[in-house]
Each structure stands twice: as structure tokens, then as C-alpha cells.
Design a protein that fits this description.
The protein is built from 27 helices and 21 strands. The chain has 838 residues and is α+β, with helices and mostly antiparallel strands. It starts with a helix and ends with a helix. It is a multi-pass membrane protein. Its main location: membrane.
């Protein structure tokens, strides 16, 4: 028979409607919709960032320098190419008023700020008027949160460093806030000129200067960037422009979006189980039709084509519905999302994420429908008449196995290409495949265990019937364990990872972390600073070290990125210290520490793990740009650096004579009893107004708040996977409803009560739900451990409330689905059911 005839027969069968394919369509639609919606939201945010790039950045381009202002040559270069230039500095400090001291992120600006956009203040006024001040004091504006924390009002005085300011207004909107990245304290804005007497911008203090450029229309940004990097090579210059005005936010959105799409793929895999089960159930219901066609001369190829075309058409329908839903929801709720997001967004229909979701949907549908379709073509007509699908081989012909593996490879390749994170993609894919394999093996083991245990339940009729049904020829365990198990696995893994991250931050870290970080301690202040702490019995330990910041520009006289790639150590500036003696608790892994009186060419001790990742070796030459000056040293040793304690950990240390003459300050970590912290903060910031104290518990709170948003996003993604699993579970229960009706009729005829039959059905569902939940729990805990151990490189412990919730949820879901479909079976008269079966 020809493809044309197969298409005609497929079309005629589809006239019967979508009976038997509702779960099929729901699973496919939900999976595609989740991926399309996440992609559309990400595209909307990226479009907003691109459209408002100049406003987010504060100009068409930005040149940033670390802990120094631009030199005369650099200023002249900018002035010659820009229509306008605005200078901004950014640093942390303590805002004080009486005994109140709060950490704040200070932005100092000039009269040209902002070049793009507008600052919104309350009460409404111009920024220039607000910063002009009154009564001989310079003005300042503050974030409303900081105003509340300090219990300060407009018109009140406060101090930054040694300079008094008057609060002129609340800072309601800062146009370039998205480009500033993560801050440990709320914003305070002042004029740079008013900080001259504050002691906060002294040589060696920790700040960055940013120069926003407003360029002539039509200026090509990439050539201009290349000119700047060539003109000021190895100066520590960092360049950004309006093409990516908020790179930190964009990178964060990309990573979260990629992760959520991979979670969506997990949901699509769960849906694939439902698709496969729906196809098997549909084909089993077409036994007589297939047998008749085979008897009339239809060959295997024709049978395959008829049902491949049917299922292909329904797959296209499901994918289309998913795309419409995934594209429509972000547009409909776009105004609400835009109001909640801290960055501009533009929600409309974007083709790229829809194409991505469609590709995922098509490949998933092919992978999960090809197997049952291929097996159907191998069944003979006589076998079909005799015992439905029981005669089908366990495995289809080898060509279909190869095609299925090829399609799976294409799906993985597409996920790597679209997400851009091959490691995360392979981890996720491996986890899904291992989970599916473990769940399939578990389902088989559950059937065998139930079959062997049924005779042991004599005297307990309901339990024995339940075990016999689970271990019987009709496979009820596999679809339930696969569908519900994979959904619960994803949710369990997310719950374990989230719980362990929160424990690491909120519980473990404070036990070993310092109470405070102090920065910007000047050379003439460090002795008095340490003396105050030495007298306090509540202080258990103090660590201090000289602190500079520098950029690694070259390795072995080659550009650093050419040698070590895009390693995180090379992204921006890094903390650098110096020491004559080897610090206590410093463990060298290779090389030797320099002698105490060493005064030769600069030597470097580098963090061992990072050195291995970057491919560094002892004897390599490394050039650092520190305060605009190049210093080249030789790597003399590698050492262990532990960042997990939140104490001081320098990637790079040098001998004392290499850096001691450079302008710098000190940092210190103070370990003290919590009750003594207010007095320590009051005494030290009162005696040394220029130093900045960062309270570790406050920093933990801000990081925890950020984790709340990430956890919410991942939980929603996992919930979508679980909803798909519930749909598949409902589909499996619906498919088994006729068999339960027959069982109930037979048992009623033999004298069983409705209550005992219902209890048997409930026990069957509970046993399957518990089995699926336990397997999912083991897989989820294993996945959470792997992520925490290999990716986060931290400890792991089982979060039992989340774990027990998974088990109870799995049992409840299967019991409710089972009883829901069993209730109808119990209400049928046995005679009607048995006559229909004849």
C-alpha cells in the first residue's frame, strides 16, 4: 500500500475525535508551553536590556578603573571622542548619625550626572538642588530603606567618613542602578567634590571610578572599544557599552533561564512517559482495526505509516497548543511581570524561543512514540486477535533502536546549543536518564516483589488483591513509577539543593565566619585598631592583612586570557596582599615561601586550585596592573586557599618589598561574641570614621533574600514537571479504569463488599505511590548530593522535612487518582460489566 492510502486511513480514524489522546495532548502541551514561556520571558528581559542599554549604563559607553581616577591622558582621550563625559565613583562606607551606624553603598557623581535618564527623588526636586545642600553642608540623597534603618528624616544631618552631610531627599529611582551589580548596603548619593575632606577616597582605599561617555550619533562601538584597549593596554581599564549595559543581570538571566529550560526538559521527559503510555493504550484499543487491516493485506510498513501519521498530526496539535500557551501567557501577564522586575523588559511574541520549544517538543514526541509504534508493526494479525499486544516483542527492530538513540543525541545536542551550558546540560541529561533507568528497574522489581508477596498476605483479602494486581500480567507499576517518580525526583533534588544552600549560609557559615569585615584601615590606624580589639575578651580572633587590588593582564608575556581563557580570576580585579613571613595556617602544596628578608625580584604565591584550573606552573611569569602600574613577578609557590569559611582568602600574595611602597590600606576580620558586636562597631567606627565595617550576618541576609528569588523560580519549574507527572498519573489511572470495573464486578459477584474492594484499590495506589516516592527520594537525594559535592564543592546533609513531604505527596497523589477512577467502577452493576466483557 502507498503512503497516500495510509494517509487516507489515518485521516478517517482521526474523525473519531481525541478520545484516548487527552493526556497525550496535555503532557505535550504543558511541556512545550513551559519551555516556550521561560524562553519568551528571557527574550523579553534581554530585549529590554538591549533597548535601554544606554540608560542602564548611564551613557553610550563606560570606562572603569580600579581604585584610582583616570589619568590626564585617559581624560583627554575621552574628551576628544565624546560629546559629554560624566565621572562617577562607587564604594562602601558607614553612614553614621549619633550611635546609629549603617553600611551603605556610596555613589559620588559630578554635575553632568546622569547623562541618560533621570533621577527620581521624594520630595520631587532636581538632583543638583538636592546635592547642593544647605546651611553650609553638602547635600545627599538616600535609599528609602536606609532612611528607615537609620531613623533619619529629610533635613537631618549624618556623616560619611569625617564629612557631615544633610539629607535632602529619598532616592526613589536611580536610572543606572542595574549596571552597578550586587551591593551589600542601600544606596547613598553625593557629589564627588564634597568627599575631599571625608578621607574616603584617599590613596589605597577601595573604590572604583567610572566614566560614562555620551558619543556622537553613528559612532561604531566595537572599533572605539578596540582603540581604547590598545591606547591604554595593561592599565587595568574595563570597558562596557550600551550593547550590554547590565552584563551582570544579563548573565544572571541567561543562567537562570538556561537552568529553568533544563528543568522544563525534565518536565518534557515526564510528559514523554505519558505520551508513550497514551500511544500504547491507544494502539491496544485499536487491536481489532489493526488486525483487520493486516488480514486485508496491509504490511508492517503501512500499519506503521497509518499510526505514525495519526500520532504525528496529534503531536503537531499538542506542540502548537503549547507554543500558543507559552507565547501568550508572558504577553498577557507582561505588565504584571514588568512591574515586578528591577530591569526593563519588553514582552511580546519572540520567534526564537518558540522555535526552540517546538524543536524540543518534536524530538520528544518522536523519541517516545517511535518505540511503541515500531513494536506494533512487528505483531502478527493472529496474535492481535488472540491476545492484543501481548505478542509484541520487548524490543523493536534494531533500526528503530538506532533511530531512537540518534534522536536522543539530537535532543541533547539541541539542549547544549540552546542553553550554552554543556556541563549543566550533560549533568541534567545524565540525571534524567539515570533516573528513568532506576525508576524502570524499580518498577520491574516492585512487580516481582508484589507477585512473590501476594501468597503471604493470606487472611488479608484487600492487601492480597492489591499485591496480585501490582504483580499481575497487566503492568500498572511502570507508568505510575515512571511518571510520578521522575516528577518527584526533580522536586526532591531542587528541595535538597535549596535546603543545603540555605543551611550553608544561614547555619553553618556563621559558626565559623567572622562577625565583621573591616576595610579601608589606613597604615597609621592599624596599630590603634588592633589595640582596641586586643583589650576585648569577647573577641576570640583577629586576622589582618595589607590589601591592594590588581588585574592580571599577562602570563609569560602573553595576554592572560590567551593562556587561561575566560577563567573567573581574570574577570576584573582581584585582592592582592603581601607578607614577609608565611602566614599561620598557610599550607603550601608546591614550591617554597620566600625568606623573610627577601628583597629581590617580585615573587608570587598563588592559590593552588585556581592555578591548576588556569594551567599555571612554578616559574611562570605573571604581570599585574596595580593602580595603573605594571608589576611582573614569578610564581614561587602554590598554596591552599579556603573560601568556605568567609574569612580572608587571597588568590595572590607577593613578597613584602614588591608592594609595601604602593599606596594601600588594610583589611581585618574580627571574630567576636554576638553580644559584643554593637560596642565593637561603635568604638572602631567612632575612632576611625573612614573605615567601613561589613557585618557578616547582614550580608548573609541579603544573599538569602537573593536565594529566595532563585528558589522560587526553580520551584516553579519543578512544580511544572510535577504537574505533568500528575497528568500522566491520571492518564494511567484512567487507562486502568475498565480493568478496575471488571475486577470490581468479579469481586462483587464472589461476595466482596464495596468497602473491601475500595480498600484494595486504595492499598494498590498507596503501595505504588510509596514505591515511586521512595525511588524518587533516593534519586533526588543522590542528585542533590552530586550538585553540592561536585558543583558547589560543599557539604551535604539530607533535608528530612522536604524528603518526607515528597514521600507523603507521592502517596497522596496516587491514592487520590486511584480512588477517583475506582469510585465509578464500584457504582457499576456487575451484570452490566460482565455482559459487556463477553
Amino acid at each position: 500500500m502507498s503512503l497516500k492510502i495510509a494517509a487516507r486511513l489515518a485521516r478517517r480514524e482521526l474523525r473519531g475525535g481525541l478520545k484516548g489522546f487527552r493526556i497525550f495532548l496535555a503532557c505535550l502541551t504543558l511541556g512545550v508551553a513551559a519551555i516556550a514561556a521561560v524562553g519568551s520571558v528571557r527574550a523579553g528581559i534581554e530585549a529590554g536590556l538591549s533597548r535601554e542599554g544606554a540608560a542602564l549604563l548611564g551613557g553610550d559607553a563606560e570606562m572603569e578603573f580600579t581604585y584610582r581616577f583616570a589619568s590626564a591622558d585617559e581624560r583627554a582621550w575621552m574628551a576628544a571622542r565624546a560629546v559629554a563625559v560624566s565621572e562617577v565613583s562607587d564604594f562602601r562606607s558607614m553612614a553614621t548619625r549619633g550611635d546609629t551606624r549603617m553600611l551603605t553603598q556610596v555613589k559620588s557623581v559630578d554635575d553632568a550626572y546622569p547623562l541618560v535618564g533621570a533621577v527620581e527623588l521624594q520630595p520631587d526636586m532636581e538632583l543638583s538642588a538636592a546635592l547642593a545642600g544647605r546651611d553650609g553642608l553638602p547635600g545627599a540623597v538616600m535609599d528609602p530603606l536606609l532612611i528607615t534603618q537609620m531613623e533619619i528624616a529629610v533635613g537631618d544631618r549624618f556623616r560619611l567618613g569625617t564629612q557631615d552631610f544633610v539629607l535632602s531627599a529619598a532616592l526613589e529611582r536611580e536610572p543606572d542602578s542595574a549596571a552597578d551589580g550586587f551591593a551589600l548596603g542601600p544606596r547613598t548619593m553625593v557629589r564627588t567634590a564634597d568627599l575631599e575632606a571625608s578621607g574616603l577616597l584617599a590613596p589605597g582605599t577601595l573604590y572604583s571610578s567610572k566614566y560614562r561617555l555620551l558619543l556622537p550619533p553613528g559612532t561604531e562601538l566595537n572599533p572605539l572599544k578596540q582603540q581604547a584597549m590598545q591606547a591604554f593596554e595593561d592599565s587595568g581599564l574595563r570597558w562596557r557599552d550600551a550593547r550590554n549595559g547590565a552584563p551582570g543581570i544579563k548573565a544572571f538571566v541567561d543562567r537562570i533561564g538556561a537552568f529553568l529550560i533544563l528543568v522544563g526538559l525534565s518536565g518534557l521527559a515526564v510528559g514523554g512517559v505519558g505520551v508513550s503510555a497514551a500511544v500504547r493504550a491507544y494502539l491496544a484499543g485499536k487491536t481489532e482495526v489493526i488486525a483487520t487491516l493486516r488480514s486485508l493485506g496491509a504490511d508492517q510498513r503501512t500499519i506503521f505509516q497509518i499510526y505514525f501519521l495519526q500520532i504525528g498530526a496529534l503531536s503537531l496539535l499538542g506542540i502548537t497548543l503549547g507554543l500558543l500557551l507559552g507565547a501568550g501567557v508572558p504577553v498577557v501577564i507582561g505588565p504584571l511581570l514588568a512591574a515586578q522586575l528591577p530591569v526593563p523588559s519588553e514582552f511580546t511574541v519572540y520567534p526564537a524561543p518558540l522555535i526552540e520549544a517546538a524543536i524540543y517538543g518534536m524530538l520528544t514526541a518522536l523519541i517516545f512514540t517511535l518505540w511503541p509504534l515500531a513494536r506494533t508493526g512487528e505483531v502478527r494479525a493472529a496474535t492481535l486477535f488472540r491476545d492484543a499486544m501481548a505478542g509484541a516483542r520487548a524490543l523493536p527492530p534494531i533500526r528503530y533502536v538506532v533511530i531512537t538513540l540518534a534522536l536522543t543525541g539530537m535532543l541533547i545536542g539541541a539542549a547544549i546549543g540552546f542553553s550554552g551550558t554543556w556541563r549543566l546540560t550533560l549533568w541534567t541529561t545524565g540525571g534524567i536518564l539515570l533516573s528513568l533507568a532506576a525508576l524502570a528497574l524499580s518498577a520491574r522489581a516492585i512487580r516481582k516483589l508484589a507477585h512473590a508477596s501476594a501468597p503471604l498476605a493470606r487472611g488479608r483479602a484487600a492487601l492480597r488483591w492489591a499485591l496480585a494486581a501490582i504483580g499481575g500480567a497487566r503492568d500498572e507499576a511502570t507508568p505510575v513509577v515512571l511518571s510520578l517518580g521522575l516528577g518527584l525526583t526533580v522536586l526532591a533534588a531542587v528541595g535538597q539543593i535549596d535546603g543545603n544552600l540555605r543551611n550553608a549560609i544561614a547555619q553553618d557559615l556563621p559558626d565559623k565566619a567572622p562577625s565583621f569585615f573591616f576595610v579601608d584601615i589606613q597604615k597609621d590606624q592599624i596599630d590603634g585598631f588592633l589595640a582596641r580589639l586586643d583589650q576585648d575578651k569577647a573577641v576570640s580572633r583577629v586576622e589582618h592583612a595589607p590589601m591592594l587590588r590588581g588585574v592580571i593582564t599577562r602570563i609569560n608575556d602573553r595576554p592572560a586570557r590567551d593562556v587561561a581563557g575566560d577563567h573567573w580570576v581574570l574577570r576584573g580585579d582581584r585582592g592582592i596582599t603581601y607578607a614577609a613571613d608565611r602566614p599561620e595556617n598557610t599550607k603550601l602544596t608546591a614550591g617554597e615561601w620566600w625568606p623573610r628578608d627577601y628583597s629581590g625580584a617580585p615573587l608570587i604565591s598563588f592559590a593552588a586550585d585556581e592555578a591548576e584550573e588556569m594551567g599555571l606552573r612554578l616559574g611562570d611569569a605573571m604581570t599585574l596592573n596595580i593602580l595603573g602600574r605594571d608589576i611582573t613577578g614569578t610564581i614561587a609557590s602554590f598554596r591552599e586557599v579556603d573560601f568556605s569559611t568567609a574569612g580572608m582568602g587571597f588568590i595572590l600574595a607577593m613578597n613584602e618589598t614588591a608592594l609595601a611602597a604602593a599606596p594601600h590600606s588594610f583589611i581585618a576580620t574580627v571574630y567576636a561574641d554576638e553580644a559584643a558586636e554593637p560596642a565593637i562597631l561603635r568604638d572602631l567606627t567612632g575612632a576611625y570614621p573612614n573605615i567601613t565595617a561589613i557585618r557578616v550576618r547582614d550580608a548573609i541576609d541579603r544573599v538569602s533574600a537573593m536565594l529566595d528569588g532563585i528558589a522560587a523560580a526553580t520551584s516553579w519549574g519543578a512544580a511544572a514537571t510535577l504537574v505533568t507527572g500528575f497528568l500522566v498519573l491520571i492518564g494511567a489511572a484512567a487507562a486502568g479504569a475498565p480493568a478496575r470495573s471488571y475486577e470490581a464486578a468479579v469481586l462483587k459477584t464472589l461476595g466482596a463488599t464495596r468497602w473491601k474492594i475500595l480498600r484494595s484499590f486504595a492499598l494498590r495506589s498507596a503501595l505504588l505511590g510509596a514505591a515511586a516516592a521512595l525511588v524518587a527520594l533516593i534519586a533526588g537525594i543522590s542528585g542533590g548530593w552530586a550538585v553540592m559535592h561536585f558543583v558547589m564543592e560543599t557539604g551535604f546533609e539530607v533535608i528530612w522535612p522536604s524528603a518526607l513531604g515528597i514521600v507523603l505527596g507521592g502517596v497522596a497523589a496516587t491514592v487520590l487518582a486511584g480512588i477517583g477512577f475506582a469510585w465509578h467502577a464500584l457504582n457499576l452493576r456487575p451484570v452490566e460489566t460482565l455482559r459487556a466483557r463477553e
